[in-house]
Automatic annotation (TrEMBL):
Protein name: Fe2OG dioxygenase domain-containing protein
Pfam families tied to this protein: PhyH
Names of required cofactors: Fe cation
Superkingdom to which the source organism belongs: Eukaryota
PANTHER family: PHYTANOYL-COA DIOXYGENASE, PHYTANOYL-COA DIOXYGENASE DOMAIN CONTAINING 1
InterPro entries reported in the protein's UniProt record: Phytyl_CoA_dOase-like (IPR008775)
Signal peptide: none
Amino acid sequence: ILQFDRQGHIKYPQLLGGEALQRFQRAVEEEISGKMLEEVKHIMRVLGEDSEDDRIKEEALRCEDAEEGLVLLQRWCEEKCIEVPFLQGFNLHWGTSKAAAVIRALSLSEWMGKATAQLLGVDSVRLYQTSSFFKRPSHGETTWHTDLNTAPLDTNGMVTCWIALSPVLDEDHSPLLFASGSHRDFALPYWLYTCKGMQTSSDRRYPRACHAPLLPGDATFHHGWILHGAPPNFSGKTRKAFALTYIAEDAKLL
């Protein structure tokens, strides 16, 4: 708790293990596979809007196969000389399938509630969202950001548990990187949001930290205001992770 308060992040080895880990891995894979086509089409639409390119948006409308969509997305990104975005899935615990029930059981477990409430120093928490982050080989970086800056909430009480579902052995496997202590810097959003800026983050006494190696089932917890990101995936294998985000029970919706 003291380390989390001071640094804004901690490592928790083997949050999941054995049969529980295997069951959770299968559940996430199953839910992701059912939503992959829509996720790929969503990325294509967003990129089309950002670049004002109707061609990629039209391809998204016609696409009927996830792998075909990934090929089209890869080709388009290469033409535009941009990194291929990684796949994200949100709120996989909402479904009615058995797989969703497995995800929901961990997300709403008493243990997770108690652990995250203790880290935040509050009496109780609510589940804000669950997220899957599958980053295929050569897929791009996760840019430096803070989670609370994108949440419509009036609170400082947010914590995310990020669980490795595949080996994350070093920075080539795209682990989370943290600017230690940055969750205490009120002015942070105004001066630093780029990788180039992170090269001088030590000037503000925020050294870059990484908890790799992480084995499947290992987890990290990080504060909602901690500046963090992840490098591109150069490992040659898909980096798989799942995140559960909790907020203080009294957080107000803006």
